[in-house]
Every structure is written in C-alpha cells, then in structure tokens.
Design a protein that fits this description.
globular, mainly alpha, about 10% strand
Length: about 170
C-alpha cells in the first residue's frame, strides 16, 4: 500500500523499492509475487533498449505479448508499473492495455520529465502524461537536469522548479 505525505513538517520519510530493469527470466506470477513479498513495489518493462516486455527510450517498438503478461502478473501481485524508461510507444501501449483490460494498477513515472517542456528521449509525451493522469497514476519529476533543460539554464531551472514545488505543496 502506498502512503504519501503532504506535510512539509512531517518527520516521516517514505521509500519505495522497485526494479527499473526487470529481469527477463521471470516466467510466472509466482516470481513476481516473491519479489512483492520481498518489498518490490514497482517494476519497469524496459530500460534503454528492447526487452522481451517492451522497448526502452533508446529503441523502437512497443509493448510485447510478454509485456502484457507481465502487467497482468504485476496487477495480480499489487506491483505497479513504472514507465519512466520506456519509450513513448511502449508506455502508451501499456497504459492503454491497463485501461482496456481493467487491470488494477496505479501506474507511475517515478522519474520523468515532460517532452513538451524539453525535448529529450527520456521525457514523456503529452499523450503518455495524459494517460497516466487518466489512470490515476503518478509522475515524479526528478532534479536530474540533463533531460529537463539545456545545460546553460540549469541554475535558473532548478530555482524555478523548486519554487513551483514548494508553492504547489500548499494547495
């Protein structure tokens, strides 16, 4: 169960364990269940290149049949899907599959930027961000600036980003 705190004065620290490069030798729901029992709360289908589940941000292709099966297993075990390193086609396919198959998963992009703000292969398209929101998912915006803004604007961006986060937490 996910617990999110919205209080800047809180002394609680949350931590989620996940796999951003899911092993390709998982052959059944029992293995995903075992990972969940050991604390894994989210898994990704791909990192940079192609996997048997889908394609990462540096490769072409979409969600595979093995990826669909993995998503079903994840839903059965209470493990959520992280689309942060997936390419946009894999992410879109996966999010539509979750919706169409009515799989109980709140998807997330644990650390991704918006492509419309800065064009980088690691950033998500407007469509993927919309699908995440439609599914009740979450987006964790990182402070890794090399895919959030041009190098010469890092300090200005970080300052504006932090200001925005502080203001939005009060809402």
């Amino acid at each position: 169960k996910f617990i999110f705190f919205n209080n800047l004065q809180s002394s609680f620290i949350g931590m989620l364990f996940g796999m951003q490069h899911t092993p390709e030798n998982i052959t059944g729901v029992h293995q995903v269940r075992e990972l969940a029992e050991h604390g894994v709360r989210f898994m990704a289908l791909a990192y940079e290149g192609k996997t048997r589940y889908g394609s990462g941000f540096l490769s072409d292709g979409g969600l595979t049949d093995a990826g669909k099966e993995m998503i079903r297993w994840m839903g059965d075990c209470g493990v959520t899907l992280d689309v942060s390193h997936a390419n946009n086609q894999t992410a879109e396919d996966a999010l539509r599959f979750i919706k169409d198959e009515r799989i109980h998963i709140l998807p997330l992009a644990s650390h991704s930027g918006a492509r419309m703000a800065f064009a980088h292969a690691r950033n998500l398209s407007e469509e993927v961000l919309y699908l995440l929101g439609e599914r009740g998912g979450y987006v964790g915006v990182p402070m890794i600036t090399f895919y959030l803004c041009p190098k010469e604007r890092v300090e200005k961006y970080e300052s504006a980003f932090l200001h925005h986060i502080i203001l939005s937490r009060a809402l």
